[in-house]
Amino acid sequence: MRKITFTIKRFDGNKDWLQRYDLPYENGKTLLWALTKIREEQDPTLNFTSACRHAICGSCAIRVNGNSFLTCKTALDEILDTFKTDDLKCEPLGNFDVVRDLVIDWKPKLEKMKVVKPWIIPKESGSPTTGFKQSEQEFQKIASPTDCILCGICASECTQLAMNQEGYLEPFILNRAYRFAVDSRDGAPEEHIRPVLENDLWKCVHCMQCVSQCPKDINLSAEVAYLRQETMKMGETQNLGARHAYAFHDDVKNKGRLNEMTLPMKTEGVVKTAMKRVPFALRMISKGKINPLHMPKEVEGIAGVRKIYEYAKGVDQP
């Protein structure tokens, strides 16, 4: 009989260890079914959270073989087919404190979320008695970000957060800032956006892990791009992130490619580049990785590149 082996990372508040459980394979089951069966039939001390079983409450997310999943939504067959193995390692979500076994602590994250004021700051045009009117188009701007169920998967997958938990905000917090900043009933979008800028907004590396693993298919990467654009409209154009973005924009528009020799100077300034980058640049030159005399020419088809820029100007923003 085919067996599925679950190796689960246990934690009792003091120490952690790996514990193995074997389950007979059953067709058409979910990851949550497997965890529940282990707890009910093999080990009642195993801790994990779940509630709605319909991908609504977001409470049952864990990591399996290094990737985060919502266990109630994820088919066991899908996992076995994805990883091509019957050995599954289950761990709590990454970038969270752990309470017990697969149970994570949300309290510090929710406290951290308050910095972006995740609530509507009403416009003067509305009131508790007359309410607020929204067009369908205005509602559609908040429809997708409101789908977030706070499952924590985006934070678990975030590569920037793995290195920078103190300074960077979790992707679901960025989503909250975006959701209220674009709400037509909100009268102070800057109060949601500025805290994001002050917490390393530009350090998102666009690895897309949060997007690819989000069980609600929320385009978090596009939300980050919007928040960055809004900070630039607020006049925040002299930070490293904004200057780097302008350098990319101008190089590609002018030549169709990046000039990697001048990119650091445009981003950090000549003095800082000389102080920080010259030794590294000299090593690159000595290894033949870069040519300081090379000045990129316009790529073939540069006219088409510039048409894309013109087209992008006319694209409707959220």
Q: What do you see in this structure?
A:
By secondary structure, this protein is an alpha+beta fold. Helix content is 43%, strand content 12%. It contains 14 helices and 7 strands. The chain has helices spanning 31-41, 76-83, 107-113, 136-146, 153-157, 159-163, 171-181, 189-197, 209-213, 220-233, 240-255, 263-268, 270-286, 302-313; strands at residues 3-11, 16-24, 61-64, 67-70, 87-91, 97-100, 103-105. The strands form 2 sheets. Strands 2-1-5-3-4 form a 5-stranded mixed β-sheet. Strands 6-7 form a two-stranded antiparallel sheet. The longest helix has 17 residues, at 270-286. The model has no long low-confidence stretch (mean pLDDT 94).
Provide a brief overview of the structure.
The chain is of the alpha+beta class and 318 residues long. It has helices spanning 31-41, 76-83, 107-113, 136-146, 153-157, 159-163, 171-181, 189-197, 209-213, 220-233, 240-255, 263-268, 270-286, 302-313; strands spanning 3-11, 16-24, 61-64, 67-70, 87-91, 97-100, 103-105. The chain contains 14 helices and seven strands.
State the distance separating the first and last CA atoms: 54 Å
Largest sheet: 5 strands, mixed
**Percent of sequence in beta strands:** 5-15%
- Rg for CA atoms: 24 Å
Low-confidence segments? none
Q: What characteristic shape results from the CA principal axes?
A: globular
> How many β-strand stretches?
7
Q: Tell me the series of helices and strands, N- to C-terminal.
A: EEHEEHEEEHHHHHHHHHHHH
Number of helices: 14
Strand order of the largest sheet: 2-1-5-3-4
Helix content: 40-55%
On the 0 to 100 scale, the average pLDDT is 94
Helix/strand-derived category reads alpha+beta
